[in-house]
């Protein structure tokens, strides 16, 4: 399913995989985020950290009346303040979606699927 944006010159359709790549990149660029996790860890592997090709497994995009709602599944570093990391991910995802695609994210829900030791 694609997100559709109506403009004066026509309709723009943006596939969910494109949005997932931008959301995944924005989420993993935050300090304290080890990587993206699967939204269904039992099916895709509990300990699997998703790479750039699989960000779509860790992001759910739903179209709302005013924009989109995004669910992001992440793994954070051990000893990090989860609430601050989640707020940072929310702000970065909203900003990147607006700047790169012109999409307003009504909701950015961050789910922490696990905690890992940070590798130096």
UniProtKB/TrEMBL annotation:
Pfam family, one: Asp23
Family classification: Belongs to the asp23 family.
The name this protein goes by in its record: Alkaline shock protein
Organism from which the protein derives: Weissella halotolerans DSM 20190
């Amino acid at each position: 399913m694609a997100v559709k944006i109506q403009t004066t010159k026509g309709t723009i359709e943006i596939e969910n995989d494109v949005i997932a790549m931008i959301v995944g990149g924005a989420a993993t660029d935050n300090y304290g985020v080890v990587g993206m996790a699967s939204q269904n860890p039992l099916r895709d592997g509990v300990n699997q950290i998703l790479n750039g090709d699989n960000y779509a497994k860790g992001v759910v995009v739903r179209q709302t009346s005013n924009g989109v709602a995004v669910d992001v599944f992440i793994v954070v570093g051990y000893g990090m303040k989860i609430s601050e990391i989640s707020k940072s991910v929310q702000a970065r995802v909203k900003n990147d979606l607006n700047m790169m695609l012109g999409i307003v994210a009504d909701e950015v829900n961050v789910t922490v699927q696990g905690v890992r030791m940070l590798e130096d």
